[in-house]
Design a protein that fits this description.
Blueprint (H helix, E strand, L loop, with lengths): L2 E4 L2 E5 L10 H18 L7 E6 L5 H14 L3 E7 L2 H11 L3 E5 L8 E7 L8 H13 L13 E3 L3 H10 L6 H7 L2 E5 L5 H12 L3 E5 L19 H10 L3 E5 L6 E4 L8 H15 L4 E4 L5 H8 L4 E4 L3 H11 L3 E4 L3 E3 L9 H15 L3 H6 L5 E8 L6 H11 L4 E3 L4 E4 L4 E6 L5 E8 L2 H19 L1
Parallel strand pairs: 3-4, 3-5, 4-7, 8-9, 8-10, 12-13, 12-14
Antiparallel strand pairs: 1-2, 2-6, 5-6, 10-11, 14-15, 16-20, 17-18, 18-19, 19-20
Helix pairs in contact: 1-2, 1-4, 5-7, 6-12, 9-10, 9-12, 14-15
Length: about 475
């Protein structure tokens, strides 16, 4: 059994002994610590209520019962929005003027996992300092439950999926009439989670001619590995040509990551979801873009093509959002298919990504594969090097910086080395003696080779 406590929340496999898995004792303790943090820091103008949404995992109802019971026991009212996407829950926090929100989802992890993802009163993830305070409170069990006259209540509201779709239709850059006129045939793979409920409704509202559904039953028994990577999407890729569809969309269990499939069954590339949507937005709303250091250089290239500025952020959605606010970015996100469009809200949102992409596709009047061919092609390699337990990882990264001092170096999150036509990013793990190595180059072989070269450099430094 596994239990991982981090600044972004608590996640683990269901069951096990205390402190061994994501069991009822761990859920109650962590939820109580979070409620204590919110009680201390929530803005005075917010209501004393917390929004709770969940994906379709088998353990979802059990985890929700524990979380809502604990929150009411801490004196908070709970707005239970039922089965809802991560971005829907984020929007609900703001709409309710709530003090906070919790999303019950382990994102792309397998079915035996679940997690508590923690939001502030803006419906955005806690930052590192805030997350650490929650961990400290949980470790010390520094919380006090409410008395009989101060218990909270549960308010059920299952309408936020509809409201989310309504808000998307109102976005200036979403053109449902153009989509309707294009008469698109779309295939979706929702991995038997909450996307199977909301994606068909979204596509119908956008005017898509026909939606062909794959794994849209929200029972939580994922039909394949739920991370929307090419090796897990062979079924939708095969179905594309059979169905003679125009485009395919695959999402993860909580619908904040979007993978696109071309009409010929080829992958558009998760790194290029953000690139295409940004290309569309920048064509109408010039401004800055942001992605994290491990995302494709293609976004930088497309942004500069529009005469705009691209900025890099440390890895992690909260870091990307902070950089977007700092630079006033009009679009941003992560290369894992995460689109953040501030005109909607400051969180990754596959539903917004789909609406913007379909609008762009309808207006471009080209196939998805033709659109993909219009962007610079880069290939990425993801590797890691395991080190001895007593290795000074920070010292190794400093040595790497010194060795490549003649190149462009960014060290806001590990060490990123930018060469003229490629880059490599080294990040240390916070939980084990491992350095993760991300490399991008004009060909897959060159990307793999660059990663291998850095592994050898690290091993020489270690020895």
């Amino acid at each position: 059994m596994t239990l991982i406590k981090s600044i972004s929340g608590i996640r683990g496999t269901i069951g096990g002994k205390p402190e061994e898995g994501l069991n009822p004792l761990a859920i109650v303790k962590f939820t109580a610590a979070y409620a204590t943090f919110i009680r201390r820091h929530a803005a005075a103008a917010t209501r004393r209520r917390i929004v709770v949404g969940r994906d379709a995992r088998i353990s979802g109802e059990m985890v929700k019962a524990l979380v809502t019971g604990t929150l009411t026991g801490m004196g908070f009212d709970v707005v239970d929005i039922g089965m809802a996407t991560t971005p829907t829950t984020e929007l609900a926090v703001a709409a309710e003027r709530a003090a906070a929100g919790i999303i019950l989802t382990a994102s792309h992890n397998p079915r035996q996992w679940n997690a508590l993802k923690l939001l502030n009163e803006r419906g955005e993830f806690l930052n590192a300092e805030e997350g650490q305070e929650v961990l400290t409170l949980a470790e010390a069990e520094d919380f006090t439950f409410a008395g009989i006259d101060s218990l909270g209540k549960v308010i059920a509201d299952s309408r936020y999926g509809e409201r989310h779709i309504e808000s998307i239709l109102k976005l200036e850059r979403v053109d449902a009439e153009a989509i309707r006129a294009a008469r698109f045939r779309v295939v979706i793979d929702c991995v038997n989670s909450v996307g199977g409920v909301v994606l068909p409704d979204l596509l119908d509202a956008l005017g898509v001619k026909e939606t062909i559904r794959l794994h849209c039953h929200p029972h939580g028994n994922f039909a394949h590995n739920p991370e929307p990577l090419p090796e897990h999407l062979t079924e939708i890729a095969h179905l594309m040509t059979q169905a003679k569809a125009d485009v395919g969309f695959a999402v993860d269990p909580d619908v904040d990551r979007l993978a696109i499939v071309c009409e010929n069954g080829q992958m558009f590339g998760e790194e290029y979801t953000l690139v295409a949507v940004s290309d569309y937005i920048l064509g109408h709303t010039p401004g800055a873009t942001v992605s994290n250091l491990s995302s494709s250089r293609a976004l930088r290239d497309v942004t500069r093509r529009h005469g705009c500025a691209w900025y890099a952020a440390a890895v992690g959605e909260v870091n990307v959002v902070a950089k977007m606010k700092e630079t006033g970015a009009v679009i941003g996100g992560e290369g894992n298919g995460g689109v953040i469009y501030p005109a909607s809200h400051c969180g990754r949102d596959a539903l917004v990504g789909i609406a913007l992409f379909l609008t762009f596709l309808a207006k471009k009047k080209m196939t998805v594969s033709e659109l993909r061919a219009s962007y610079p092609s880069y290939f990425m390699s993801k590797q890691k090097v395991e080190l001895a337990p007593d290795t000074d990882v920070d010292a190794i990264l400093e040595n790497v910086k010194a060795k490549f001092a003649g190149e462009e170096i960014t060290d806001i999150d590990g060490v990123k080395i930018d060469f003229p036509d490629r880059w490599v990013h080294l990040r240390k793990s916070n939980t084990e003696p491992v350095i993760r190595i991300y490399a991008e180059a004009p060909t897959q072989t060159e990307a793999d080779t660059l990663g291998d070269e850095l592994i050898q450099t690290i091993k020489r430094i270690e020895n």
